[in-house]
Design goal:
Length: about 100
């Protein structure tokens, strides 16, 4: 890393997506919370942002990792390293 801050395409795109989701969530929450107290509008903006994150970022992950991650050969499932090796988490212990 040089003396200047450089951001490559993938992290810049992810950061831009998160910023867009934050802006959309805040705008939606503030619009839905008109006439409410400031704390209520802030909480509603956070909940809208959180719902957008679940829908846009986590929804495709769940959809693309269909089935058991330990038995899947999909691209997203290959990111779960702990499921490939012995694991002590509750879900791995329950399945055997």
């Amino acid at each position: 890393m040089g003396s200047t801050w450089e951001l490559e395409a993938a992290p810049a795109g992810a950061l831009l997506l998160c910023a867009a989701l934050l802006a959309a969530g805040c705008a939606l929450g503030l619009r839905l919370g008109r006439g409410r107290a400031a704390a209520d509008r802030g909480a509603l903006a956070w909940l809208c942002y959180d719902a957008l994150v679940h829908l846009v970022l986590e929804g495709p992950f769940v959809y693309l990792s269909v089935g058991n991650i330990a038995n899947s050969d999909g691209l997203i499932a290959s990111l779960c390293i702990s499921c490939r090796s012995p694991c002590a988490c509750a879900s791995c212990m329950a399945t055997g």
